[in-house]
Amino acid sequence: xxxxxxxxxxxxxxxxxxxxxxxxxxxxxxxxxxxxxxxxxxxxxxxxxxxxxxxxxxxxxxxxxxxxxxxxxxxxxxxxxxxxxxxxxxxxxxxxxxxxxxxxxxxxxxxxxxxxxxxxxxxxxxxxxxxxxxxxxxxxxxxxxxxxxxxxxxxxxxxxxxxxxxxxxxxxxxxxxxxxxxxxxxxxxxxxxxxxxxxxxxxxxxxxxxxxxxxxxxxxxxxxxxxxxxxxxxxxxxxxxxxxxxxxxxxxxxxxxxxxxxxxxxxxxxxxxxxxxxxxxxxxxxxxxxxxxxxxxxxxxxxxxxxxxxxxxxxxxxxxxxxxxxxxxxxxxxxxxxxxxxxxxxxxxxxxxxxxxxxxxxxxxxxxxxxxxxxxxxxxxxxxxxxxxxxxxxxxxxxxxxxxxxxxxxxxxxxxxxxxxxxxxxxxxxxxxxxxxxxxxxxxxxxxxxxxxxxxxxxxxxxxxxxxxxxxxxxxxxxxxxxxxxxxxxxxxxxxxxxxxxxxxxxxx
Amino acid sequence: xxxxxxxxxxxxxxxxxxxxxxxxxxxxxxxxxxxxxxxxxxxxxxxxxxxxxxxxxxxxxxxxxxxxxxxxxxxxxxxxxxxxxxxxxxxxxxxxxxxxxxxxxxxxxxxxxxxxxxxxxxxxxxxxxxxxxxxxxxxxxxxxxxxxxxxxxxxxxxxxxxxxxxxxxxxxxxxxxxxxxxxxxxxxxxxxxxxxxxxxxxxxxxxxxxxxxxxxxxxxxxxxxxxxxxxxxxxxxxxxxxxxxxxxxxxxxxxxxxxxxxxxxxxxxxxxxxxxxxxxxxxxxxxxxxxxxxxxxxxxxxxxxxxxxxxxxxxxxxxxxxxxxxxxxxxxxxxxxxxxxxxxxxxxxxxxxxxxxxxxxxxxxxxxxxxxxxxxxxxxxxxxxxxxxxxxxxxxxxxxxxxxxxxxxxxxxxxxxxxxxxxxxxxxxxxxxxxxxxxxxxxxxxxxxxxxxxxxxxxxxxxxxxxxxxxxxxxxxxxxxxxxxxxxxxxxxxxxxxxxxxxxxxxxx
Amino acid sequence: xxxxxxxxxxxxxxxxxxxxxxxxxxxxxxxxxxxxxxxxxxxxxxxxxxxxxxxxxxxxxxxxxxxxxxxxxxxxxxxxxxxxxxxxxxxxxxxxxxxxxxxxxxxxxxxxxxxxxxxxxxxxxxxxxxxxxxxxxxxxxxxxxxxxxxxxxxxxxxxxxxxxxxxxxxxxxxxxxxxxxxxxxxxxxxxxxxxxxxxxxxxxxxxxxxxxxxxxxxxxxxxxxxxxxxxxxxxxxxxxxxxxxxxxxxxxxxxxxxxxxxxxxxxxxxxxxxxxxxxxxxxxxxxxxxxxxxxxxxxxxxxxxxxxxxxxxxxxxxxxxxxxxxxxxxxxxxxxxxxxxxxxxxxxxxxxxxxxxxxxxxxxxxxxxxxxxxxxxxxxxxxxxxxxxxxxxxxxxxxxxxxxxxxxxxxxxxxxxxxxxxxxxxxxxxxxxxxxxxxxxxxxxxxxxxxxxxxxxxxxxxxxxxxxxxxxxxxxxxxxxxxxxxxxxxxxxxxxxxxxxxxxxxxxx
Amino acid sequence: xxxxxxxxxxxxxxxxxxxxxxxxxxxxxxxxxxxxxxxxxxxxxxxxxxxxxxxxxxxxxxxxxxxxxxxxxxxxxxxxxxxxxxxxxxxxxxxxxxxxxxxxxxxxxxxxxxxxxxxxxxxxxxxxxxxxxxxxxxxxxxxxxxxxxxxxxxxxxxxxxxxxxxxxxxxxxxxxxxxxxxxxxxxxxxxxxxxxxxxxxxxxxxxxxxxxxxxxxxxxxxxxxxxxxxxxxxxxxxxxxxxxxxxxxxxxxxxxxxxxxxxxxxxxxxxxxxxxxxxxxxxxxxxxxxxxxxxxxxxxxxxxxxxxxxxxxxxxxxxxxxxxxxxxxxxxxxxxxxxxxxxxxxxxxxxxxxxxxxxxxxxxxxxxxxxxxxxxxxxxxxxxxxxxxxxxxxxxxxxxxxxxxxxxxxxxxxxxxxxxxxxxxxxxxxxxxxxxxxxxxxxxxxxxxxxxxxxxxxxxxxxxxxxxxxxxxxxxxxxxxxxxxxxxxxxxxxxxxxxxxxxxxxxxx
Lengths: 509, 509, 509, 509
Ligand SMILES: [Ca+2]
Hints:
By secondary structure, chain A is α+β, with helices and mostly antiparallel strands.
């Protein structure tokens, strides 16, 4: 974006350089879109769907409950003995015939289970909190909500084997996890399952009979990774059951479908070529922006567009570096895996970073699209519209502040009144999201009413009246007024030399 | 807010005092937020959720129905024999082993059942209403809808024990309850359950075999309280089944998760300190406002901001007083409880007042936030926006009156036409809420259509056309017009000395 | 409304008469509200709910399906043998004991079954349509969709008893019914059930074994009425299963909760008094409007308010007449019933007219509320708002015409493209309602997409863009512009003598 | 539309011709509506509903799952052995009696199954993709996603019969199908079912026992057609189960209810007459437009209304031609069918074209309605409104471009971030539709939040703020401003001679 500022005197030259810049930018954007769209496909969604339905919607044998609906510790064992084992080991065809040895170890007959699944639990000590003096005689043990410092690291139960003795995060080479209720460390009591159905069932039975889960248990992880060679995708699966200090069980899960091995088919190599071109573009922009920074010094950073440029470049660099790291790391893991097929292999953190990488790239593309607006004002209507938005930005921002003070006051009120009863108000963030959703018309009035039959409806009606009927209309009033002004201003200006004229002129020559 | 009015001549001084006031106010607000946010936590929601899922979603053994879906008297017994007993007494681990004696009496192995649960019913007399003369020969008994004056207080059935003889509200030391259909007195026929599963099951069986519930029964309460020492929370549970005079059963419930013992952990003591500071602030504001009232007399009450101040102070005082009462009362109850562990202990009304206390505090915080707007007009954009809102307030209020006349006319029409068929129109209030929800897009058109195939759609379309298409836009028109006026007014004024200038000046020195 | 026109010269006098008129009108409105609110109560909704849940949500023994989910002829028998019989005859208490003889014949032990239920079917002839010549050899019988002229009136099956021989509408003293698929006549093949469970079950078994329902059957009605003496309400129940010519079964139902015996309790007599006063008011207004008509002749009918007056009076008169007819008719029916308790008694048409009566009254109240606007412009803000609405009415109506042309074009397009697949577009009316609901955000995009993967999304996006983004905003533009005009006009007028001044003056005297 | 341009001088004459044109046009429109409304009826929806509920909602015997909920290969066999066979062959009445021979072969006793159903599968080769070298030793077979070039055409299993040997699209006289995951060719391995339940069950059992479906199977089709003589409608049914390369099963379906035999009843012949008149109209318009094109040459195509005329004429011609083709083709098929009742008859592509025909006609009617706007500006209000829309069209289009750039940037961002987790963002198109639906308030926030707990809510709030709060209001600002302008312009013009005047004048004569 070097030339833009310098050539204001000569409008024709200015348009010429703008157009050249625009053409280059469009090529850049096309390459970028190819790279990112090449990165994902609908197949990835179907993979996630198929795997998650298998484990989350499989019914328990007796209660017909599912993993999603789990509410007690007992349900965990029902899940482990039923849908988990049945989902992991497909040893028979639909007509009852055993699958051949070659076909063993594939979920849905298609998805290779990499290594063996691992079950891990974390516990807290029975003296991790203080019982109020009135109850001190009655209540002997107190298990606080999970915190790393409160972890119970003592062996228990059978006292032997990894299931009954604690291993630290370093020993397990694990990583932390941000659960629904708390953040958990990477250590704990660990039990690997086997490669056959019968053995795994036995392992689980032993754990259950010896009360592996007890009052101190705060979370249990089930981790495994599957690989589908047909479509060259990994699905890294973590099933999580949190046991809050309140009793009961809260299930959650992550199914990360990632393409860890990137270059296999012909299409993959085409994407690779585009990535190379993209890197060249980034180098070109780095040089250009570098020159500009040297020239304009600090004033460079006052332009919104320049900051956008810098952001895009930084994200691109990080992504490139990660791409290299990923390739090395995956090779490493696979080597280990192929040597020891009966061991657990941890793809958890690798898949996490891959998802971060994808998100970063996605955000970069979004910024790149926003930058198109820099070049868009090539005819009068467009100028009029974009300058309306630009001019009312300050007023809108000012009003947004006022709007959000009221909004947050309502959110806090809702959180404090309904927080203990209604999921949508169970935390301050949730209350904010819920109030946004009310504006769009997506909410559950009956829950609010049930939580508090007097304040619920009053709260709802006041909110709708003040925010939906009154405040929201201020946004419109601001935009409407600014548009009228801008239109009046522009119609009073003399016509400037426009892009359209440039083309017309070129055509007439 | 003393100085604001006096110093209009000297704008610089005015800004200085305003800024000082603002800083003090922000400190006050921060303290207030700490106190209220310290009062609640997401754990409370999880506690409510876990306990309510246990009792409300547990399936009956034969019909697979749940408490939520209860429709007949028979369902009540199915519930009592199944999910209620199973939910209250956890005497076995998931592997079938009995829990140790220390661990007996804990729901989910974590939540101590305080005392024993109590079942209570209220009946009406069989001559509580007049049968129309045409049916007088056919229909011998008539049981009216519940009203305290119609209560049947005669012993019945086995004629012995509290289950079969009436006790008044005073004898039971109970309190009334506002149900879905009616408000109920605190007396009735009462049966306490036992501390073991087998005994409780037997008690329920005896009641069922002797037709404890009959045509006169209008409501049945199941009350108990659990305490979780891990997180220091009480959950006061009331399950309610109303038997309307129409036949059938209408279940409802309240799960009140409250922190009755407030100061146990270190964090609790930090909150206590903040509460002390808060009390000091309130004293400071009381003195200040007192001085102002003395000075301005009645004209003091003409300012919206002053009334807000008064409201905040009054609520704060009430809350402080309740805080003391709660501490004494809880101690009292717990002493009784620990002496007689086999008795029922009533936390119902205590928890009710605790919820009122929380709500009052929440509303106070909301008012405190609204007062921020008093200080907000420190730059031109803000002034412009806030004076737009202030100036159109009168017109908006005027239009709101007209809007609500039409609105209420529609609500009454909907109530009278669809009231007997559609839940959303089953009472006048419900009709009002439903019409509000239609504006936001949350409604069930098919129910309306099914209730009346001709008037349903016509009503819906007329309402949407007149209220959504036409009237709602008047709000916008009013705001839009006022904004244009205000903007024109302000741009014609000379620039006043602003807060920004004040800082600039200070900076230049 | 006599004086309004005449006294324009003397504004003070005008205000005085307006105020007097207003006060009288408010008294009238209050009486009217008492009458109508006295007519309905939430109990009526609960009654409908309890009865409909009993019959519509009772599960079949084997398939666990319900009346609502019925899809085949076989399902009808499952319903008749299960939920219907169990719902009609409550011969045991929840503990298995038989109910006493006095208590026999009550649904939910509370609701007297009046007479016996009746099952009625209508059939079409097997030559009611022409088979296309190509299939003439293959397909011998053709049963058209139901029409009264195509009815099969021949005896069939066992050939004896009312179940197997046709009775006409006159013989049965029945009335037609407007079903989902067609309108049905009041005759048919009729089978009354018995007063005991065992007998009724046998009756149904005989019908089933002899193929009472066959290919020609187009509809089956189950009719009965229950009376609850506790709350003095009748519930007239009709369960309907239509068998369209396509095969399959379409269930529908009506539960009409009506108060056929009106004056029993003290409250009823208070309402009666109000009704008397209301009649007096109506007489007063009749005289007044009569005088005005005589005076102004045809020009009287040019005023919107006068037409409203006439409407209110006409509806009031009709309702009064019906009220008398109802009282007589109900007495008649009940006499028959008490004489012959084993016969079917038809409350169907009586309850229908009662519902019409209620609706008419409801609409009258709505008109009465609208008339309040005639008196509302007593201060400047109100005048400004109401004259904005009045002035933009013409433009709005003009635009509404344009809007609805586009709207109907979209509705027809949707009906023709998606009509065969999507319920929401299955008829032209449904398409109109659906498009309205899309504007409010209540719709099912996935159904549209599934019906036609190309045209579905295109249709949806075009509709939203043109109607929601563009056309809807025209309503706002019209209102906004008119409001600005009116405000400018009014602020340029000199202040008129207002109601507020009138009070002020009165106060100063 | 010949005369419109020529007669501008004489306004009165102009109005006269306009009125004549309008009257003719209204007749045309009425005829067109009769033709199209005569083409469809609510019965068609009921037919689709009844047939789809039968096959899609029938429960499997053991798992109680349905076709809609199918997730594994095993589920396919559960469906084939249960709901499919039970739905196709109705050999018993509800009381257990066998149906007579005449009545055999009718679904719901009403719908003749034409020929026999056919099951067809498509497979891919086991070397259709490359396994990454690291896994080459472990994973021997690789089955790619379906593509026509990767089809496995080798015989397998029992090696005999059409079920085990490949037939090409030409041999089967089939056609391709656009599935959810891929587009499929018309060839494959084919198995016809029999005309009796027992035989068909046996056929399916043989396929299942010999592993007819294996890892290579990518899709399975079940095709059959039923004909209902009562209502003269065909329902062409295709049930589809896709087995993606990820494992699992994705069911889909099409139920095309079409009227292939058009002229049977008296009403049909009335429609036929209307169609003839319609053809005459089209010929008249063809001539007229031809004359205009000859006169105005290329400038003819600059008018929006002329292009609309051309479009209507072209669609009408195509439809007329198809109508003739359909009649011939159906006769042909039916002859084949009646000769060989045990063969499969393919109505698939015929029904597809019939649906295209219906859609084309529907679109034509929509265009015809839009043309009404050409004649609508016959009074001042209408002129004002339609010229507002016309004048702001350019600005709206300009802004729509800007709007959609931001919109698409958000869609791409959503697709890339949430695409692997959330169905609503699983493809770029879905993301676009989802963002549209968010504006209307129809979305699932919780899914977004679960997919990414940080970016989900941020994305949602940014989208709502920028697009719903800000950009959407620009549409309104543009329309509002233009309306004010137009109103000002028109009120400054002198009153033109209007249609109303024309009528007034005619009346005065
Ligand atoms: Ca909405």
